[in-house]
Specification:
The protein is α+β, with helices and mostly antiparallel strands. It has one domain: Alpha-Beta Plaits. The chain is built from 2 helices and 5 strands; from the N terminus they run E-H-E-E-H-E-E. A 3-stranded antiparallel sheet has the order 1-4-5, covered by helices on one side. A two-stranded antiparallel ribbon has the order 2-3. The protein binds iron/sulfur cluster (SF4).
Length: 89
């Protein structure tokens, strides 16, 4: 049986409206993939067929990390770091 084509490989893109400052970095880096909503000014994913590379390039370019990427329910970007415990050496 052939694999089902899935250009996004299970990725889900979430844009945090509280973080988006509408500076259009993502729309510059990945034109046509992300656009600014006419009414809210907040970025939205406009191309459901966008490639993984286009999505990550835009997310990395976002200065406020408003673009959150999950794959199969797990956070991929931005990375959540586990705090270190104990005293530094
Ligand atoms: S780069 Fe980030 S802050 Fe700027 S428009 Fe895109 S999502 Fe919003």
């Amino acid at each position: 049986m052939d694999a089902i084509p899935n250009p996004k490989r299970g990725l889900e893109v979430i844009i945090d409206p509280n973080r988006c400052i509408a500076n259009a970095k993502c729309t510059t880096v990945s034109p046509g993939v992300f656009v600014l909503d006419d009414e809210t000014g907040i970025a939205v994913l406009a191309d459901e067929q966008a490639t993984v590379e286009q999505i990550f390039a835009a997310a990395r370019a976002c200065p406020t990390q408003a673009i959150i990427i999950e794959q199969f329910g797990r956070r991929m970007f931005p990375q959540i770091l586990t705090p270190m415990f104990g005293e530094p050496e």
